[in-house]
Amino acid sequence: MVTSTYVYYNYYRLQVTKRAGQYGSDKYVAIGQLEYYGVPEYDPEAHGTDVVVKSEANVPNTDWLEVYYDAKNYTSGVVQDETTNNRDAEMNATFDNSEIKAFSFSGAYTSNVTTSDHGLGTGDVVYTISYWFKRTAQASNYDYLCLLGNGGVAKSSILMWINNDYLYLDHWGASQRWDKQIELNKWYHVTAGHKGGYTPSLENDFIYINGKKIGARISAQTASAFTFAGSKLTLGSSHHTTTEFLNGKIANFRLFNRALSSDEVWQLYAYQKEYFGHGDLSLTLKAGRLGIGTSDPGAVLDVNGVISFTENSFDIYYAPEAEWPASAGYPNWYAGQDIGNQFMWRTLGVSGGENFLYHVPRNGILMVNVSMIHRLLQFRAGGNTTHAVYWCLRKSTDNGATWNPITSRIIGHRWVNSTGWYQEWHPVAIPYTGRVNKGDQVALFVQNEYTTSGSTYYGNFQVYNCRMSGVLI
Q1: Mean confidence (pLDDT) of the chain
Q2: Which of 177, 206, 209, 314 has a CB 3.0–4.6 Å from the CB of 168, allowing a cystine?
Q3: Model's pTM, two decimal places?
């Protein structure tokens, strides 16, 4: 038996060297059947592939670029700006000249790539940053990928950092995060930016990971005007403090002076997805099997990556307790049995919360889920009192002029008491699936109802861990 995989032969011969018998029929040797087994040499002209469609990625647009640094073009000295703006950067990192070329940061605040002029200007700047990065180890509590601006003043900087393995886009006290933890030694393509207006905002701020817009999470922060200030740009560490830095690599970095579209973001990702090991750009039909992003399909449909039926998702999150109405002390005094519908998103927004409102960008099927814990709190009156708090989702088709309920308005809790407070926490869940059209708005409403036989009354309730998330397909 020939078992070697390193030695190749052109001819094989079977040779008989001995017979067991000497007389009669034993004088002869007869071979009835001879079979050879093995793996044939690969023939590229006959490998069984029926159709291969190869897509050539478009070279990304260079218009509106303020800064573009790319390690694949680096040789030595300063980091050359690939735009005509010539905003070269000081090289304080290590150049990784391996197969995937990158700027390598050692996990020290002195290890960075920095320039004194990013070119964005000041005020409510509109921008997009896009880059490939890999984190190799946790470096500090806040691992800085990039910082633009002075730092230290609320709503005045642009930075992206990792905390507890979560990636954040932050304007200093105005942040949103990707709700999936970053893995070590894995390349990610990140595109993030600001369209103008108040921040933080799921409408005005955005994050794309590997070409796909993510449903970011915003914690309890007050949205206000973006007042960007400072001209410095640093990759791999902070230039505001000495305790934030990155242990990892950044292969390239682009800064645009406008908000890119989803198609432009995908173009940036697809341009180098093969280079960074994110599959190929081929479609292969082979032996009745269709491969997308793979040249060797192993199933009837073999997809390298994720099949996405939507690019529109959202996740609005508010964790701390929030009294309603959002005013100091007790809420306003009301007469009658029904104070009317109140926007949950409006009241929490006033008190430093988030806008529980979704603007529908296109026609489709919207799937939404709202979850929270609430409790009726501190409602007293002279005489018997009935207090109820109800929630529902409502939709507006006329830019917020009128709102119609799309879920039951009796989702909530009711309490009758004349002597004390009712402080038990109750879970609330509100699912909804239905057709929506471009321009519609869907918002979370709360309704506070009560009756009283006395003349003195006041009420309050609290909300914890409120979340409104969904997808549009």
Answers
A1: 79
A2: 177
A3: 0.64
b/e for 281-317, b at 16 or more Cβ within 10 A? ebbbebeebbbbbbeebeeeebeeeeeeeebbbbbbb
HEC readout, the chain: CCCCCCCCCCCCCCCCCCCCCCCHHHHCCCCCCCCCCCCCCCCCCCCCEEEEEECCCCCCCCCCEEEEEEHHHCCCCCECCCCCCCCCEEECCEEECCCCCEEEEECCCCCCEEECCCCCCCECCCEEEEEEEEEEECCCCCEEEEEECCCCCCCCCEEEEEECCEEEEECCCCEEECCCCCCCCCEEEEEEEECCCCECCCCCEEEEECCEECCCECCCCCCECCCECCCCEEECECCCCCCCECEEEEEEEEEECCCCCHHHHHHHHHHHCCCCCCCCCEEEEECCEEEECCCCCCCCEEECCCCCCCCEEEEEEECCCEEECCCCCCCCCCCCCEEEEEEHHHHHHHCCCCCCEEECCCCEEEEEEEEEEEEEEEEEECCCEEEEEEEEEEEECCCCCCCEECCCCCEEEEEEECCCCCCCCEEEEEEEEEEECCCCEEEEEEEEEEEECCCCEEEEEEEEEEEEEEEEC
Range in 145-149, 158-162, 332-336, 447-451 the model is least confident about: 332-336
What are the angstrom distances between the C-alpha of 328 and each of 221, 340, 350, 370, 387?
Answer: 17, 21, 11, 27, 21
User: Of 379, 293, 287, 390, which is closest to residue 333 (Cα–Cα)?
Assistant: 379
Domains of the chain, with CATH numbers? 65-308 (2.60.120.200), 313-472 (2.60.120)
Most confident among 393-402, 422-431, 448-457 (mean pLDDT) = 393-402
**pLDDT of the residue at 440:** 92
Q: Of the ranges 41-55, 127-141, 336-350, which one carries the lowest mean pLDDT score? A: 336-350
Please calculate the CA angle 420-425-431 and round it to the nearest 5 degrees: 135
